[in-house]
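Good morning C.,

I know you're traveling, so I'll keep this short. The sequence:
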Amino acid sequence: MDYLKIKNLSSKTNDFSLDKITFDIQKNEYFVLLGQSGSGKTMLLETIAGLNQCEGEIFYKGEDISLLATEKRDIGFVYQDFALFPNLNVEENIRFSSKYKKVVDADTLFEDIVEFLKLDSLLDRDTKDLSGGEKQRVAIARAIFSRPKILLLDEPLSAIDPTFRNSIMKSLKDIHRRYDVTTIHVTHNFREASYLADKIAIIMDGKIQQVGKAEDVLNHPINIEVARFLGFKNIFPATMLGFSSSSKVFSVDPNVIKVSKNGTMEADYILEGVVEECMGIVDHYKLFVKVKQHQFFIKILKRDYEGCYADRTNIIQIGFDKKDISFI
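The tokens, ready to paste straight into the viewer:
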């Protein structure tokens, strides 16, 4: 049985809609919702938490909770801006859930969370005096203290100094494991998703485009829109490679494409093109080569080539191997 199952979930606010969202999450999975700003990520979290009216079903361990009040869903929510209570100090923020529900082994849990998240020196502080990283830790501590069935994290690293991001990502994974919680994490950052996720769902314009194991989604996009969102380059019709299907497309990484001026290249696929531009960037060149009506983007290391292939209008060969192609 799925731990959490979202089935045909729809919701509307102003001029934006979530459209028949469906996916499932297993117990203790770290599930990442990946999408651009305005794609519906936060709205979906709020709908799962019961903050928006909706159609469709939300099942927790087989029980439909879609009509339950927010406070009865046992869901911990950490907002992007942390949403701490300004009239309460750090300890009072963390213990807030005990005002409306019985927290099992509350004192033991509190001491463990404080020690684990290194909050002991902050307990008497006003939240307005905290740094972004400190506020984040307090917000997560408050959510964990409520012993949620599911932890919802809305862009939890967006307000964090990039120099601390790696350590905080590790902390999130450790929290997920230590407190035996199933997590849904919203982000637009591919690196976050790759490091944290067991499973990823790509959301665009209120619709789930693709969902699956993190490695599968990030390396095998289901369509061109997802591929472009994930940063895939050089997306062209497979007819360029001799395939007959006009609907099939392929992508090849700019870093694996070889180039040659003298026709001595070895590769599974060799194409002839015209240099349109060459840009020197620190340790590499960015080449833009037109092959028929399509422009290839290529990166070549300066140390591997003498001089730039910058002579515009020069005809060169580009090549790549079958193993380096992703079909979409």
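Safe travels,
E.
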